[in-house]
Amino acid sequence: MIILSVESSCDETAVALVEDGRKVLTDQIFSQVNLHKIYGGVVPEIASRSHTEVISILAERAIQEAGISRGDIDAVAVTYAPGLIGALLVGVNFAKSVAMSLNVPLIPVHHIRGHIAANYLAFPELEPPFLALAVSGGNSMIVDVRGYTDMSIVGATRDDAAGECFDKTARVLGLGYPGGKPIDDLSQGGDDTKYKLPLAHVDDNPYDMSFSGLKTAVINLAHQAQQKGEELDKPSLAASFCKAVSDSLVPRTIQAAKDLGHTKVVVAGGVAANSRIRRDFEAACAKEGLALYFPPLKLCGDNGAMIGAQGYYEFLAGNTTTMDLNAYANMTI
């Protein structure tokens, strides 16, 4: 089964062709980073306009690169939630028009389910059940994945997402947008014990997280150094920040996996590309005897292939929709 899949939830436009949920025939991605970096973050109106300009071009390119015809497409999958509402609507309306013109099923896919499914593309042997950590610019959550379409949130951030904190910290350090990779690169030469940064604890749910205090602490350190005329050790602050984020994510995820009886841990989303987090997860899972799955770096960020992967399993579960499909800025997994 070949699925044409569309992703446009934020600042990447992506159209992919995926076979049987596991094989990527092609994944065409247009990044809008250069359009948004001068503003220090994503501008929703610019994002929506850019999606509109390139989405049909990417679809045509995907079909040509995969060496198939339109008649070979068996279904269309699309991210319909969560995300920037204008950006989502571009993808949803394009997907509806393609599904209608080809007379094939339309499959709605939750963006975070797609991030988790990126691991199916990298690891053909991976099957539920497992414990997943999904961390990106807009989301940070621990998910109990009991089946391909049967999952529930057991822990999440109460405020800022981890990826958002990376971007805000990068801005304070003068690294620009997006902040994930620049902070990771800068941290390699730093002392992660130099700056003591806070770790939040949520009393009523040990799996829940909070990152707003961490973000504020970094901002205050930078401002105080500037006001006092002191030199800020940026590599060490970046290293200390990465350690603090990892110390919030890794122990909670490992504990949740043990408490729920899972033997496999899956990490997904843009923040999963951070080298400190990957290294700490490898050490923790090795210590606890848990199998660990990280997507390759190219599948950590937003892409169309992950939507096609999850779309296949949504289709098998009977989760197709009609032409009145709408987009939603927020929706539980």
Question: Could you outline the blueprint of secondary structure elements for this entry?
Answer:
Elements: E1 2-7, E2 12-19, E3 23-31, H1 33-36, H2 44-66, E4 75-81, H3 85-102, E5 106-110, H4 111-122, E6 130-135, E7 140-145, E8 151-156, H5 162-172, H6 180-187, H7 212-228, H8 234-259, E9 264-268, H9 275-288, E10 291-293, H10 304-316
Parallel strand pairs: 1-4, 4-5, 6-9, 9-10
Antiparallel strand pairs: 1-2, 2-3, 6-7, 7-8
In a few lines, what is going on in this structure?
By secondary structure, the chain is of the alpha/beta class. It is built from ten helices and ten strands.
Q: Percent of residues in beta strands?
A: 15-25%
Number of helices: 10
Class based on secondary structure composition and strand pairing: alpha/beta
**Succession of helices and strands:** EEEHHEHEHEEEHHHHEHEH
Q: How helix-rich are the residues, as a percent range?
A: 40-55%
Radius of gyration: 20 Å
How many β-strand stretches?
Answer: 10
Strand order of the largest sheet: 3-2-1-4-5
Measured between the Cα atoms of the first and last residue, the distance is 25 Å
Major sheet details: 5 strands, mixed
How confident overall, as mean pLDDT? Answer: 94
The coarse overall form would be globular
| Low-confidence runs | none
Structure write-up:
It contains 10 helices and 10 strands. The protein has helices at residues 33-36, 44-66, 85-102, 111-122, 162-172, 180-187, 212-228, 234-259, 275-288, 304-316; strands at residues 2-7, 12-19, 23-31, 75-81, 106-110, 130-135, 140-145, 151-156, 264-268, 291-293. Strands 3-2-1-4-5 form a 5-stranded mixed β-sheet, sandwiched between helices. Strands 8-7-6-9-10 form a 5-stranded mixed β-sheet, with helices on both faces. β4 (75-81), α3 and β5 (106-110) form a beta-alpha-beta unit. The radius of gyration is 20 Å and the shape is globular.
